[in-house]
Write a structure and sequence with these properties.
Helix content is 55%, strand content 4%. It is mainly α and 164 residues long. The longest helix has 21 residues, at 28-48.
Length: 164
């Protein structure tokens, strides 16, 4: 690990009221965690108003975008890293089947029903609306720059690939 003795700023305690001049000293873990929690809560609250969960949206998108049609375990394996536990995605698949939004074909592959596709399209519209609210006042260039910084920080920890 490289020493930070030549760093222009020291790490300050997390301060939600930090001025713009103080932001360079703020901990990224605090601010990225705060952003994650706020954006996720905002999206999930919007979805809850139409009786859908974010994991249900993930499953609908996963089944829709899979080349061909996925098996149950394909979807579970793909989405479990995002989920709140190892059994959540399997439960969501069952919920969506019960709701009539997913069906299993003769080859045990998951497929969206017409109602499931309609729900997926509506959720996509809702996610786009929520994104517009969250991105208000942020240019595309600023957004890309923020993601590049986060991607570099993840790579710097050894947890992700190096930026392209």
């Amino acid at each position: 690990m490289t020493r930070l003795t030549d760093a222009p700023t020291d790490q300050a305690p997390a301060d939600p009221g930090a001025t713009d001049e103080m932001l360079a000293t703020q901990p990224i873990g605090y601010w990225s965690g705060l952003a994650h929690a706020a954006v996720t809560r905002h999206l999930r609250d919007a979805m809850a108003r139409i009786d859908v969960t974010q994991p249900q949206y993930w499953v609908l998108n996963c089944v829709n975008s899979w080349p061909g049609a996925p098996g149950r375990e394909d979807v579970v394996t793909q989405l479990t890293p995002l989920a709140d536990g190892p059994h959540e995605i399997a439960r969501v698949i069952d919920q969506l089947a019960h709701r009539g939004w997913l069906r299993t074909d003769a080859g045990h592959r998951l497929r969206l029903t017409d109602d499931g596709e309609a729900a997926r399209v509506r959720l996509r519209e809702l996610a786009t609306e929520v994104r517009a609210v969250v991105h208000e006042g942020i240019s595309e260039e600023e957004y890309v720059a923020a993601l590049k910084v986060l991607r570099r920080m993840v790579a710097n920890t050894g947890e992700g690939p190096a930026p392209r």
